[in-house]
Amino acid sequence: KLNFNTGIKSKFQVMQDNDLSDFYYDEKIFAAYATIAYNHTKYDVSLGLRAEKSITTLKDNFTNPVLSFFPDVTFNYKLTTRQHIQLSYNRSIRRPDIYQLNPHTTIDDPFTVSKGNPTLNPEFCNSIFLEYSLRFRNNYVASRLFYNCLTDAISNLTFINDTGAFEIQVHNMGTLHQYGIQFSGTFGFGILSINPWLQLFKQYSYADNVAK
Question: Residues of 21-31 as b/e, b for ≥16 C-beta within 10 angstroms?
């Protein structure tokens, strides 16, 4: 009834721009994780933690080491063989991509320029939800209450630069909060299957100093 898993993972990547010799971005990620799960006739519990060390370097500019921890907790209670209630929490990360990091300036039109930002920090997301699910015949329906908190949210900032042109640059803009309800399911009709999905949510944000 008790399961334990552990492992390690590493990732290495180099990003270059053939038209911009000064742009040489190097990223190393080292991660170790462990999960423990207990299965009971009435409930299942899973606890997990991932520790991640990332080292990002931009040639002749900066080296940024970051140590992050990502917990994952899930509790599933079986009301009946067909009805379950699940409570889950996890923390995740989304790193900026090469186009967002490249500082090279692009002229979109005579009045607009855009460029990336090599100093971007990754986004972190904390998510929690409570879900009720039901299976009947070959069908499945689920309803979920959820809350998400996104810190260091990456988004475009537009302003007028010294030349009077609109300049678009990506930045970490602040914190986003989102809460709502979600419905999903699977319904079979002979050889046909329908998978409806609906999410209603309210979102509000807190801008950081750059956005303000």
Answer: eebebebebeb
Tokens of 124: 């972190």
Q: For residue 199, give both structure tokens.
A: 């999410």
Which pLDDT score is estimated for 38?
A: 96
Interatomic CA distance for residues 126 and 122, integer angstroms = 13
Question: Do residues 169 and 115 lie in contact, with contact meaning Cβ atoms separated by under 8 Å?
Answer: yes
Tokens 């040639």 found at: 59
* Rounded average pLDDT over 121-131: 95
pTM for the full predicted model: 0.81
Q: Residue 43: is its pLDDT beyond 80?
A: yes
Cβ atoms within 10 Å of 166's Cβ, excluding its own:
14
Reported in sequence order, the residue ranges of 40-61 that DSSP labels E, i.e. its strands, are 43-58
- pLDDT grade, residue 212 (50/70/90)? confident
- Average pLDDT on 20-34 reads 87
Q: How far is CA 103 from CA 23, 39, 55, 115, 208, in A?
A: 8, 50, 19, 5, 21
**DSSP state for residue 80 in the 8-state scheme:** S
Structure tokens at 68: 């992050």
Rounded distance, CA 97 to CA 181, Å? 30
Q: Which residues sit opposite 180 in a β-bridge? A: 146, 201
The whole-number pLDDT of residue 137 equals 82
As a whole number of angstroms, the distance between CA 30 and CA 12 comes to: 9
